[in-house]
Amino acid sequence: MQSWSVQVAKAHFSGLLATCETSGPQLVTRRGEPAAVLVPIAEWRKLSAKKPPTLKELLRTSKHPRAELER
Q1: Residue 17 domain flag
Q2: For residue 35, what is the domain's CATH number?
Q3: pTM for the complete prediction?
Protein backbone atom coordinates (compact mmCIF):
# COMPACT_ATOMS: atom_id res chain seq x y z
CA MET A 1 0.00 0.00 0.00
CA GLN A 2 1.43 3.33 -1.04
CA SER A 3 1.55 6.16 1.49
CA TRP A 4 0.61 9.78 0.72
CA SER A 5 1.01 12.76 3.05
CA VAL A 6 -2.09 14.93 3.43
CA GLN A 7 -0.39 17.75 1.53
CA VAL A 8 0.53 15.51 -1.42
CA ALA A 9 -2.90 13.82 -1.37
CA LYS A 10 -4.63 17.20 -1.53
CA ALA A 11 -2.38 18.52 -4.29
CA HIS A 12 -2.61 15.33 -6.38
CA PHE A 13 -6.04 13.94 -5.52
CA SER A 14 -6.74 12.81 -9.10
CA GLY A 15 -3.51 10.82 -9.05
CA LEU A 16 -4.33 9.38 -5.63
CA LEU A 17 -7.75 8.30 -6.88
CA ALA A 18 -6.33 6.79 -10.08
CA THR A 19 -3.70 4.87 -8.12
CA CYS A 20 -6.37 3.61 -5.73
CA GLU A 21 -8.48 2.36 -8.64
CA THR A 22 -5.57 0.56 -10.30
CA SER A 23 -3.43 -0.53 -7.34
CA GLY A 24 -5.84 -0.84 -4.42
CA PRO A 25 -6.02 0.92 -1.03
CA GLN A 26 -3.87 4.01 -0.47
CA LEU A 27 -2.76 5.25 2.95
CA VAL A 28 -2.96 8.96 3.80
CA THR A 29 -0.74 10.18 6.63
CA ARG A 30 -0.78 13.30 8.79
CA ARG A 31 2.52 14.31 10.40
CA GLY A 32 3.89 10.86 9.52
CA GLU A 33 1.08 8.97 11.28
CA PRO A 34 -1.62 6.96 9.46
CA ALA A 35 -4.81 9.04 9.23
CA ALA A 36 -7.03 7.42 6.57
CA VAL A 37 -7.19 4.87 3.79
CA LEU A 38 -8.74 5.45 0.38
CA VAL A 39 -10.19 2.18 -0.98
CA PRO A 40 -11.80 1.32 -4.31
CA ILE A 41 -15.61 1.39 -4.19
CA ALA A 42 -15.95 -2.35 -4.94
CA GLU A 43 -13.78 -3.18 -1.93
CA TRP A 44 -15.70 -0.72 0.26
CA ARG A 45 -19.00 -2.33 -0.73
CA LYS A 46 -17.68 -5.77 0.21
CA LEU A 47 -16.39 -4.51 3.55
CA SER A 48 -19.53 -2.58 4.45
CA ALA A 49 -21.86 -5.46 3.46
CA LYS A 50 -20.30 -7.83 5.99
CA LYS A 51 -22.21 -8.00 9.23
CA PRO A 52 -20.07 -8.24 12.36
CA PRO A 53 -20.49 -11.50 14.28
CA THR A 54 -22.68 -11.52 17.36
CA LEU A 55 -21.16 -12.13 20.78
CA LYS A 56 -22.77 -15.58 20.78
CA GLU A 57 -21.14 -16.43 17.42
CA LEU A 58 -17.76 -15.21 18.66
CA LEU A 59 -17.98 -17.31 21.79
CA ARG A 60 -19.12 -20.41 19.88
CA THR A 61 -16.16 -20.20 17.50
CA SER A 62 -13.63 -19.33 20.21
CA LYS A 63 -10.72 -21.71 20.82
CA HIS A 64 -10.52 -20.60 24.45
CA PRO A 65 -11.33 -23.53 26.82
CA ARG A 66 -13.68 -21.45 29.00
CA ALA A 67 -15.70 -20.13 26.08
CA GLU A 68 -18.32 -22.89 26.11
CA LEU A 69 -21.98 -22.12 25.50
CA GLU A 70 -25.02 -24.33 25.62
CA ARG A 71 -25.99 -25.11 22.07
Answers
A1: yes
A2: 3.40.1620.10
A3: 0.67
The closest alpha carbon to 4, from 31, 33, 26, belongs to 26
Strand pairing category for 33-38 and 3-5: unpaired
User: How many domains are contained in the chain?
Assistant: 1
Q: Rounded to 5 degrees, what angle do the CA atoms 19, 23, 24 make?
A: 100
Q: What is the DSSP letter of 42?
A: H
What single letter denotes the amino acid at residue 54? T
3-class secondary-structure state, position 12: coil
Domain that holds residue 49: 3-61
pLDDT in tens, 22-66: 999 999 999 999 999 999 999 999 988 988 888 888 888 877 666
